[in-house]
Amino acid sequence: MNHWPLYQPIQDDELFSSWLLRNALAHGCAPLVFCGALWPGVRMWTVDIDCGVGAPFLRQLDDAEFPGVVTTVGRFSRALECVSGAESRHANRRWVLSLGVRNRQHQCGLQYCPICFEEGLPYFRYHWRFAWQTGCVEHGSCLLSRCRECHAPVQPHLLVPPVTDCSICHACGAPLGSSLNVTICPPGAISLQSVADDTLSGVGVSKLASEWFEYTYLLVSLVRYAMRSRSRSTLQMLSSLGAEVKSEHQVCSGLPLELLEVSERAQLMSLLAPLVAQSPQAVAQAIKDYRLPLSIFGRHISRPLTGAAAQTLVSATAAHPHKSSCANKSRQPAGRSVVEREWRRLQRKIFAYARP
Predict the structure, then answer these.
(1) Whole-angstrom Cα distance, residue 356 to residue 353?
(2) How far is CA 151 from the centre of its chain?
(3) pLDDT digit string (tens) for 226-249?
(4) Which are the contacts of 25, defined by CB distance < 8 A and separation ≥ 6?
(5) 110, 156 in Cβ contact below 8 A?
(6) What average pLDDT does the structure give for the chain?
(7) What is the pTM of this model?
(8) Separation CA 222–CA 187 (nearest Å)
């Protein structure tokens, strides 16, 4: 028998943190108090609960009293392993949106669909934690990670009674669920999202799925390189594969994919869709034809590549001769866009570690 009279069962695709939050508010207590009752003496909300909760804590949630919780959490954990590979135990995981946790404050908010929150039971889906998720497949709207009224990152774990559900902004109290003034997600981003979801949900193909996400992450680096450098050869190569990088396509910061805003990731995913539709051999041949350097993949090539598709891309790059550091050439000042990008990165670090 469950000891919690107003117990809320977990949904099939619900985040562990969302389930804890809903049960806390249903019983009229803060999430901090509710977790303190389940795990005395443990400050659960100072870490990313969805990605960092350990097996000893889950074992305390007996299936008879909390049916389906361990199964749902395990499903998300297996998905994390698949998309992030060996990095699943690190602080920053490939393809998994980072929350930027500092004590109980988050620098980035949880993603949600405002129409889903308005029409049905408001709760946070675990597939919304992945970086390729930028829109709602059912409604075609862009996901949000900030309150549309005060622009604060969505941090539902900071809600306290008398709030009864997670559809309220913790900072200003405005409703998060609304079908008014929603932004339509680019069709290319929705298409890429469907392909990624189908790859992740494939039965018995976890190794193939892991290699696919590794390969696709290299393509993200390639697109970002083109948007940043505006290299003529890179732009022509992408255009030959159906990805037209235009002047309005730009990422304003040099932050990793997992820390970008939804609008910036939607641009990247829409450009990524035609590349994913091509075979790895076709993409590799295009890289070879345009003699693109290894630097198009940025720092991600420093990690060991396990998939054949990713290795095919890297091996197709041209070996450009090393430029002498002693060349008699004065250093030119950085462009305005470079300075602005680095200034925004510095501001983010200052705000992230400054004391309130």
Answers:
(1) 9
(2) 19
(3) 998 889 999 999 999 999 998 888
(4) 31, 159, 161, 163, 164, 165, 166
(5) yes
(6) 87
(7) 0.88
(8) 21
